[in-house]
Design goal:
Blueprint lengths: L8 H12 L8 E7 L14 H9 L1 H13 L1 E5 L4 E2 L16 E5 L2 E5 L17 H17 L4 E2 L7 H9 L3 H7 L1 H26 L6 E4 L4 E4 L2 E5 L8 H17 L3 E7 L7 H5 L6 E5 L11 H9 L3 E6 L4 H7 L5 E5 L5 H14 L2
Parallel strand pairs: 1-13, 3-6, 9-10, 10-11, 11-12, 12-13
Antiparallel strand pairs: 1-2, 4-5, 7-8
Helix pairs in contact: 3-4, 4-7, 5-7, 6-7, 7-8
Length: 359
């Protein structure tokens, strides 16, 4: 088997290291993947029963088997990397708290509300939590299998107030006003759970990931500790609440990392952009193009503000968006992930086109 599925891993590492420093060589960073065989692309299928879905998401052998099939059928161009991403639920560190109830669904893992009384729920970190212990073992197994072949992403542990919102349910929105001290304390404790758990999870993948860490669904690699931050519930709260509750969470979490990227999910978060840009330890903004909202090129002034604040930008785009974005943005610290190449030749042509545009 060809090492890293034909990817020049050292060349990609060099470019991604420059990316985090807001520098570039002859073009911005770009990830493009395509099916090797248009007639036989990889198609993900999900089982139907709850037990089979549980195994689908949590059994290392099953995770490995389907991902090996996907990697074998994929052409990687630019800075696209062969990565196995063990998805086990967004805001998944909520699962490391006793009493958390999980439901496995096709395409997602659902964490149900677990408490009504803050005083009666244990938010403390338990280093022997069996869910965390199992996930560490899964990452170790995948990393052992991946040595010299593929990288292993972190579970989707992100957004400690998003994790709290899963545990509390919709009543959290009123708790910001009715029980602010208890909400703040709970959020602080969940950040502690995240950071303590990630030490074990980073350690499980570090050797395989060439001394660094990987975000699987974004396809990003960084030397040292690299994690996604987010606060999707921020689309429902005011700038005042964001600064009071969320900024401290993001600041503490990002300061514990070598490279932190914030998942900016929807234009409703624009009202929080200044607060985000003021957090020095957030290195990059991942601008999400939400279905039904205008495309990213309609927000060039906001994207330019991000770059002027010294932050990188990562975006998932389609081919038609490349030129408008390159016209308006600096290539330094810019990562475009292009998702609609039809075959390997087009994937390579997209990378060549971006390089040509940079001349």
């Amino acid at each position: 088997m060809e090492a890293y599925y034909g990817v020049d891993i050292e060349a990609v590492r060099r470019r991604l290291t420059l990316l985090w420093n807001r520098e570039c060589l002859d073009r911005c960073c770009v990830q493009v993947t395509a099916p090797k065989d248009r007639a036989h692309p990889y198609v993900e299928t999900f089982p139907e029963t709850q037990e089979e879905l549980r195994l689908y998401y949590t059994d290392a052998d099953r995770i490995l088997a389907r991902n090996l099939e996907r990697l074998e059928k994929t052409h990687f161009a630019g800075e696209a990397l062969p990565i196995v991403f063990p998805y086990m639920g967004t805001g998944g560190h909520a699962k490391y708290l006793a009493g958390c109830r999980v439901e496995y669904r096709p395409g997602t893992v659902w964490i149900h509300p677990a408490f009504e009384d803050y005083d009666g729920f244990d938010f403390s970190y338990d280093e022997n939590n069996p869910v965390l212990a199992h996930e560490v073992e899964v990452l170790r197994a995948l990393s052992q299998a991946g040595m010299g072949r593929f990288l292993v992403g972190q579970p989707d542990n992100c957004g400690s107030f998003d994790a709290l919102s899963q545990l509390r349910g919709p009543d959290l929105m009123m708790d910001f006003y009715d029980q602010p001290e208890k909400v703040a304390a709970a959020g602080e404790q969940i950040v502690s759970v995240l950071l303590a758990a990630e030490e074990k999870l980073f350690a499980a993948t570090r050797e395989n990931n060439l001394g660094g860490s990987v975000l699987g669904w974004m396809g990003t690699w960084s030397q040292g500790k690299h994690l996604q931050l987010q606060c999707d519930l921020s689309v429902m709260i005011s700038p005042e609440l964001f600064r009071e509750f969320i900024v401290p969470e993001l600041t503490r979490t990002s300061r514990a990392l070598d490279n932190a990227i914030y998942h900016f999910d929807g234009i409703e978060q624009i009202r929080h952009l200044d607060a985000l840009l003021a957090i020095d330890s957030i290195d990059m903004i991942q601008w999400t193009q939400v279905a039904g909202q205008p495309p990213a090129q309609d927000f060039l002034p906001q994207l330019q503000r991000i770059q002027k604040a010294g932050k990188g930008i990562m975006m998932f785009v389609d081919k038609a968006q490349i030129d408008p974005l390159l016209d308006g943005l600096s290539p330094e610290g810019l990562l475009l992930s292009v998702g609609d190449a039809v075959d390997a030749q087009e994937a390579e042509d997209i990378v060549a086109h971006i390089k040509y545009r940079m001349k």
